[in-house]
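Input/output pair, single chain:
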Amino acid sequence: MERPKQVRILQLNEWDKLERTLFRLKQGYELQFRLGPSLQGKDVHVHTNYPVDTDSFDRHHFQLVHWQNTIGGDDSDRYCAIDLQIAGSFQFYFSYGHNQKISTGFIVVDPILRVGHDNRILPLDCICAQTFLSKCLGQFDEWEDRLNVAKQSGYNMIHFTPLQTLGLSRSCYSLADQLELNPDFSRPDKTYTWSDVARLVEKLKKEWNVLCITDVVYNHTAANSGWLKKHPECSYNVLNSPHLKPAWLLDRALWHLTCDVAEGKYQDRGLPALIESESHLDSIRRIIWDEIYPKLRLWEFYQVNVNKILDDFRDALQHGEKKKCDTKQPLKIIQDPEFKRYGSTVNMSLLLKMFVPRGNRPDEIQECCNWVSKKLEELNMERYQEAHWHQEQAVNCTLATVSYERLANYGPRLGPVTEKHPLVTRYFTYDFEVMPLEQEEPMMYQPEKAVYFMAHNGWVMGDDPLRNFAEPGSNVYLRRELICWGDSVKLRYGKKPEDCPYLWAHMQKYTEITAKIFHGVRLDNCHSTPIRVAEYMLDTARKIRPNLYVVAELFTGSEETDNVFVTKLGISSLIREAMSAADSHEEGRLVYRFGGLPVGSFAQPSVKPLVPKIAHALFMDVTHDNESLIQHRSAYDPLPSSTIVSMACCASGSTMGYDYLVPHQISVVSEERLYPKYNPNTHPGHLGEVNQQSGIIAGKHAINKLHRELGANAFYQVYVDQVDEDIVAVTRHCPKSHSSVVAVSRTAFRDPATSYYKSDLPSMCIPGKIEEIVMEARTVQRKADPYERDVHCINGLPQYTVDIEEHLQLKDSKIVKTEVTSKDRNDYVYEIKFENFPPGSIIIFRVSLDPNAQETVGKLRHHLAQFSPHYKAGSIPDMHALPPLTNSFASIASGITLADLNLLLYRCDFEEQEDGGGCYTLPNFGPLKYAGLQGFISVLADIRPGNDLGHPLCENLRAGDWMMDYISSRLITHGGKLEEIGNWFQAMFAYLKCLPRYLIPCYFDAILVGAYTTIMDITWSQMSSFVQNGSTFVKHLALSSLQMCGVGRFPALPKLSGCIEGVPYRLNYITGEKEQCCVSLAAGLPHFAAGLFRCWGRDTFISLRGLMLVTGRYVEARNIILAFASTLRHGLIPNLLGNGVCARYNCRDAVWWWLQCIQDYCVKVENGVKILKCPVSRLYPTDQSPPLEPGTLDQPLHDVIQEVMQRHMEGVQYRERNAGPHMDSHMRDEGFNVTIGVDLETGFVFGGQRYNCGTWMDKMGESEIAQNKGIPATPRDGSAVEIVGLSKSTIRWLMELHKNSLFPHSGVKAHKDGKEILITYAQWNEKIQQNFEKNFFVSEDPADPFEKFPNLVHKRNIYKDSCGASSPWCDYQLRPNFPIAMVVAPELFQPEKAWKALKTVEKKLLGPLGLKTLDPDDKVYCGVYDNSFDSGDFNISRGYNYHQGPEWLWPVGYFLRAMLHFSKVMETKLYEDTIYLVKNVLSHHYDYLEKSPWKGLPELTNENGGYCPFSCETQAWSIATILEVLYEL
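Output:
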């Protein structure tokens, strides 16, 4: 089997904010964009800068991604896709209509790295990187000997700091020339070039299997860079950035203070050159405030010249023109862009508007000028206070710097103030003669000099990394908040290459040189590098090297902000550091966070949602710009901490010097010594050379080798166990082979020589069979001379080495003793006892399953391979498989009936209780929704994506076999095909029971998912072509229909005539006799699932078309129609079926829904009209007869239909049988009296009265407290609009049938004026047609002559809910019922009027899932249904508002179908717009269906789609009517 393509689905929604979300993908994946609920039905366009149709990537060129799978009704399967074949960062955005970029996001595609002569892939998780300071490698011809240390230590990636010419400071990151190789690498007689470096890099890749990366430094250049002198515009200087002038002046003042302090001028003021105490800091503070700030007068750069503005104001009053201005804006100082003293100004027009003299006399003008002067002084004072605030911060930051550099124990302790070590680092370059400050200030305004006052770079603690701190608007330099690098000048790129052409071109060449040679780059100072610059340069690099590996270290303090850099730049790995951990527990937590899945994780499908991720980590024990681990912890900690880091499922790394225990930081600035070379035969005291015995190099070699092995062999599951406060155990597990590697490390965060470590260590348990000890190692001391820092070579501690042994058997271990403590069901557990495990030690075990368990897993995977090729790996053919497993599951399950599928997949608790059982109950969770597979699948679907192995279901599976036994035994007891399937599960679970308990959840999931997906395919294959060829939404709704269509232990339907073919039979479980077992329709789950309350006439026939006819279940639909036909009495079918013998005939509409379904059956089913001749075995041939045995009296269905029509025309009046409180405890006595008839003037069917409710809105008051008991909330007596529509549909249909000789009756008999007359169906049809609009439409014309109660009209352009109600107000209520009539009898409606009415429904009643059952403007509207609430409120107590506002789902189906019909007959554009609306509405149902554990649609919601706990969780008619809409589409 070929491995399936990996597909990730990103659902788009209008409200998405994805700019800071990281989506990581691999090359070869397919990314699909699908529409979420908020966008379905809209004309959405997805654009991306991924080069879909071209080979070259252009960040600014976006292409339209074309939609696929657009054929079909809804948008659930509509997608557009990108086949990801190149690495990098790619942006997408989507829009619809005229909106631009509704939302945008990024995807990052990982590079594919290759090594060796054979160009084999190096997975990112296999990287073991080591950093070298390039300047410490010496002459180029000695590099290999020094780099060989990395090779012999097991590293496969070398990170070089920049190889370019360094600046005067000799910092590795202060580059004087980005294009030239550092001349230090050459010899007097040999000059090396970039070509030599390229050849070395290629050699390391092919022969050493080592890749090379290097830093790129874009943010600054060395202050002595020659090219910068020629192009000073590339810097932030006081000419192009005049906002820096005050900061430059302050910087010069502090430099002069440095010189004075160094010369001892302030000795008598308490400030000597050697600063040693807090009192000296206080002296600095006083001097700055008392002498420097008053002399600088920095506030003047921000203030206005009051006298000049007054002169201008006075002149403008007399001579100037007044310009229009916005007087609502406050008067404020406008900053002088050149930052001259008193150079700022104000808006003169606004000033003239705000200050108007009382007259033109000189004294009046002077008075006005005085007020202006006062206002200007106030504004100047505000600027003075702002400057004072900046000055306070500047003093604080200055003193904090001095304190760190000269007083703090953890600081550099610089010693006396000198020009080399100034009081504070200079913020700006100054290459001119030092003069008194007052003579230097004018130089700011001399362009030829100001251009060379360049701002240094640095970093700002706690600053927004997305803000450029050198740009206007930032006061970082003035406030002295910059932690400055005095050797480097910050570069000023602008926003695009045209802003600074030389700089962009120079850095582009630098990037090209780097990308041609190196396999990757580290973005130095990434968080301060302008993102536009980094994007441009990385795009340049990727054109040369498409699979560029990009790493960076970010200090933003926010994962969300990190993601901005990672997503926009396509960073492959973020550098993370174990040194940040304060203890071993935190170090272990970092391992878990930075990679891998939990051990025992579920197998994920190849097609799944795209979920946000954290950035891939390059997890380093220590980075090159941090202090040595030995300084902060101890010399014993590098080995265990390195082991912990290497066990992380991500890239790992270190810095040169760590492994041979250099006890100090190797400074990137001051270090000039050379690294040692590798010599296998050297001895500890030999400086300049190292070998395997140096420090922990031998241990690191073994650990790195293991790290590479684990990454290459898919050991991507991780478990971290904190054994005690110092011991961390990390497990890496391979889910294919179920092999594990367990590394146990005893850290030494404290020096064991001076700190207490307990000797009594807890034991630990390792499940499985320990194959070997991969290695055990301890940091030990040896005889060697004490450490002395060498002047030529970077040397480490010679007295420490690693005592390491590899590939041992347990019995040979010097560290642990073990014993097998459990061997139950092939489940080995080793107890590990630490006997000699001091701090600084590690032991690593290789663990496999017990051989029997391993064989069992192989056989199980063999059987699972029928479902997914994922399980081919590690599978073993099962030569002695149990009989149920000798055939594929698909062949075993084929032929199962849809009725049996109801039991296999579903059945809620009430249904199961009929069989004496119930749904499976999980401790700490509760009962599952279904007893069938869906109950388990719904929970697993929530657990699987996040691998929630602590979920109660997983706990239950690990604790025992009860769940597996429940599934198989439940099916076996039912016999037949279900028994075969149950036996298959039992046989599969037999393997599962022999596995270690931690593996059971993932394999249980695999078995269920495999069987479930097969069963779904079998289900759909038995349904109509509409379902088989339909969208995912259609298929899942069709699957949901199985929930409702089942056969319980007791038959729910009356028996059919024995003359009918295709009636299913079974043997009665008690008598053993043959009995009919027709499928019946449950109204909803869980409340109407079983017993007497399962089947309801109205619910059944509102649902039957969608659930059975649309899905192709024709025979079952026919049987249900005929079964209800047998119960006809009083010209009605029952509301509550009660198996026919306990039926309740108290609804007026069910019979019309039944007739509509017969019509639909005849139309939908081939030769469907034959049903009219099917025999109906009448239970009640007369109203008074007792129930008859089947076959006593059979009638053709057409005669039963005719009886319905005749009885209605004659009029029906009766009192319900067994009327009284025992039948209905809430109904008043009058309510049991039923009256139905036909109005001969209009042809409308009418009925009901104020004390009963005969339509679907049938809530009877129940509250004695609120006094609504026995009073229907919605009696809807008279002619209900949907009944009129349904009757019109039936009459029209019968008329056409008779015309075509398919129905023997032409009409019905009636009595008029004492005579019996025949009213043909044609006449009756015409009568309704003529009277409907004038009786039901509420015209926009107030003078409509047909309007009987114009005073009751409160909504126009709607159709009444009823006609002739006992309470006329009720006729005029806006409810969702007239769309039903529009669908079944569209001929009654004038399209323009119908459309206006439907738009009112859309505006007033349409909710997210359903339609409000009452106009929200109605005084009794309440959208929240709470059947438990009982107070004095008449309108809501005991759920009285059941149909007075809550949003019911099933009417929305008819509303959408009506919209589709009338828009189509009106105009094409309207129809297209309506399709978008319909799709958008349906998307919410799809979303609900997918997320619901019931996998259905609810009965109703509270207002605005809110969850209603009193609703059925899944309702037959809700599913059915939505399916019908999809069928219409």
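The chain has 40 helices and 58 strands. The mean pLDDT is 94.
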